[in-house]
Amino acid sequence: MIKDFQRQLNQLQVLLDALVLALSYSLAWYFAIKNPIFPQGHGVLSPRFYFTVLIPMIPAYLFLYWILGLYKPMRTIRMKTALFRIIQSNSIGLLLSASILFAFRKSGYFEHYSTRMLGFFYIFSICITTVERYALRRTLSSLRKRGFNQKHIILVGFSPVSDRFIDLCKKNPDWGYRIYGIVDDLTEQGASYRDVSVIGKIKDLGELLSKNTIDEIAITLPLAAYEKLPGIVAVCEKSGVHTKFIPDYQEIIHSKPIAEDMDGLPIINIRNVPLTEPFNALLKRVIDIIGALVGLILFGPLMLVIAVLVKLSSPGPIIFKQERVGLHNRPFMMYKFRSMGVQKTEDEKKAWTVKGDPRVTGIGKIIRKTSIDELPQFFNVLKGDMSLVGPRPERTQFVEMFKEQIPRYMIKHQVRPGITGWAQVNGFRGDTSIPARIRCDLWYIEHWSLGLDIKILFLTVWKGFVNKNAY
């Protein structure tokens, strides 16, 4: 029944998408050709020609939607993900359309086809498709909350994983998952979690499936019971019921894992680090170089003034160099404007700077409080030691201490450290919780995108450079 509904839903989505594409194209023709917003240069081709082009365009776009996953079940897919796929599909469609247009323009066939109309079509198709998908999602969510389009599931294994799965289903009733019960060998029948009860042993699974209408099986075994997995999978496949496996690795893998195929051998990476991808790393490095050069040009006059004030404030060098730990645990010398009197190396390593620290000079208090002392790190970025955005680097002695005290601390060194970061814009700067800072750093590492970097840079400027925890 669920499969039939999903098939019908996919057919409805395809039909709606085709209608939306036709509507978007018609609106684009109306605003670019029929009653052009920009009257000059809107083309001379007939309506029949333009709408003949639409005939192959609609199936081509629907094929792109299918390739990029827009017809997969929407139960647990976030709207943000769906929007990204819509933009991605239409962007590829625009590039392909423009390529074909320019390829055949020399032959004279598309010589007068309006490129402006393609731009209108791109905007309309994204906007209207997004509205359509959102409305369909809201409708299905409402139906599932009322008990329609439910998926009946049996869980195999009573474990922390099953508890978490139940919690998520209870929290998101719009997903439409109704848990029939749990089968488990280690827990007595009748035991329950949030009104979901153990209804039998694993050996009873085949009989339960034959006597009840079950749409899915979710294997939620604890790690200690994985030796039973082959037998359970065999029973599930014999029943013909769709089966999903939810691995119990929450204490080992704390993020969304990435699976890959090595000539037929499935591999699961312990942690998703987008910046290990060569293209992502190159893109970020290019942005870092451009951003550092722009930063040096913008803040160059201020840096010259600060350099003079530091030199006049106390004897010693203008730039303070300190060893920090960076990418792949490699030490590097991080630059800052000197804000303290010159100290012996062993004294400087003893402790954090505290409020009212007598070592801090008069100008030092100002530049530390406003983070102006960090501006020389633009040179670290140009050298490749640092990035504009990333986890803040720590001193070697503290890294040695924290890696023993704080789980997963060293993961932050899988990417370049940054001048600013997700932890800093969330308030974890200076003398604040190290575990909380690490949680922010790990979240950033696992969810990196160019958009996230831009957001962090914007928040750094928006929230101001003044740091109440900098002494």
Automatic annotation (TrEMBL):
It is a multi-pass membrane protein. GO terms for molecular function: undecaprenyl-phosphate glucose phosphotransferase activity. The keyword Repeat does not apply. It comes from Oribacterium parvum. Its EC number is 2.7.8.31. Keywords: Membrane, Transferase, Transmembrane, Transmembrane helix. The chain crosses the membrane at residues 12-33, 49-71, 83-104, 116-136, 289-310. InterPro entries: Bact_transf (IPR003362), EPS_sugar_tfrase (IPR017475), Undecaprenyl-P_gluc_Ptfrase (IPR017473). The keyword Transferase applies. Pfam families: Bac_transf, CoA_binding_3. Residues 284-464 form the Bacterial sugar transferase domain. It is found in: Membrane. Belongs to the bacterial sugar transferase family. This is Undecaprenyl-phosphate glucose phosphotransferase. GO terms for cellular component: membrane.
